[in-house]
């Protein structure tokens, strides 16, 4: 049977993470996978998570199944984070939310649901997008197209070109948007751009498919949900997938949600039963532990405010590192202007250097980044910032 299979190239992101882990050089620096690191280079378990976990371990008296849709308290809390409290779509009973195994599990469930509702449906991804969007949604049975997004020369969004391309999308097709902290480019839609897209989607009957994997890591929990809330207010149907990997540091616990806004309560019920049926067919039930932690954090006032403090610390550190890197590179008189990095948001930016330079940074200087030159800013710290800037300057000046 399996002689038909060929060995595939390593994953564009996780392959680099593995190369880094296999490198024992004392100067090695990991700017690859999108995982938060503190100034000591660690990815700690948040204190709010530790406390919630301790309470769960003390109280939990069964490991029986929860439900296909996962933890109901978690799903309610996740809806409030996404849409804010008292959102009309929730009050009107038009939102169906289920827990999923991480943001990727959520994307997969949403993809299967769209493919079931619209066989052969086209979904439009930004150029560029997270490299896993394409294979993941293709595997769900969708046809993938692209729309222009990042201008590598001007370091901004090609908004006019994006609008022009999306004018051609047909009614009932969907466009995947990054809710905030665009992965990989860090260039986010402004409120005015969200408004213009909402008007276009409304006019053309396009269904937004919003991936909100970094809520709270750009400006704030509420500001980062601006696009989700606006589109949900103005459009009849919206698909939202979210993740607690980054903003709660729960990476390996696999916690995410798929949340679908429908036109009526009746359609919501059909969506919910199909979401549950897709999840049952794919993995039966999501893992419980991470969602149980988030449920507690969201519904226990002191844990919730501790989380917001810890999230604020992560956000401020990343935003500060953006300016630090720009300053460090400027001080080395490099032949490129990196000031755009300070204006972008979230964990990632493209350095905008050549692939050969990325490889040289990895092989000669032990500085690891994705081959597209995407860096995770959170991998920079007080101990390695000089070394990172020296290494980049060295490959640029050659
Ligand atoms: C990333 O983009 O580095 C993260 O979202 C991790 C992943 O799974 O790719």
Describe the structure.
With about 400 residues, the chain is of the alpha/beta class. The chain has a seven-stranded mixed sheet with strand order 2-10-9-8-7-3-4, with helices on both faces. It has a two-stranded parallel sheet with strand order 1-12. Strands 5-6 form a two-stranded antiparallel sheet. Helix 12 packs parallel to helix 15. (2S)-2-hydroxybutanedioic acid (LMR) binds next to loops.
Kindly report the spatial arrangement of strands forming the biggest sheet. 2-10-9-8-7-3-4
As residue ranges, the low-confidence spans are none
Q: How do the SSEs run, as a string of H and E?
A: HEHHHEHEHEEEHEHEHEEHHHHEHEEH
Listed once per kind, the bound small molecules are: (2S)-2-hydroxybutanedioic acid
Rg, nearest Å: 21 Å
- Structural class call reads alpha/beta
Biggest sheet character: 7 strands, mixed
Give the tally of β-strands.
Answer: 13
Average pLDDT reading = 97
Q: Helicity, in percent?
A: 40-55%
Termini separation (Å)?
Answer: 50 Å
Strand content: 5-15%
- Tell the overall outline: globular
Enumerate how many helices there are, as a single number. Answer: 15
Question: What is the compact description of this entry?
Answer:
The chain is 45% helix and 14% strand.
Topology, please?
Blueprint: H1 14-21, E1 29-30, H2 47-59, H3 72-83, H4 88-91, E2 95-100, H5 102-117, E3 122-127, H6 133-139, E4 143-148, E5 150-151, E6 156-157, H7 159-166, E7 174-178, H8 191-204, E8 207-212, H9 226-234, E9 238-243, E10 256-261, H10 265-282, H11 289-299, H12 301-331, H13 340-343, E11 348-350, H14 355-365, E12 367-368, E13 374-376, H15 385-397
Parallel strand pairs: 1-12, 3-4, 3-7, 7-8, 8-9
Antiparallel strand pairs: 2-10, 5-6, 9-10, 11-13
Helix pairs in contact: 2-11, 2-12, 3-11, 5-6, 5-10, 8-9, 11-12, 12-15, 14-15
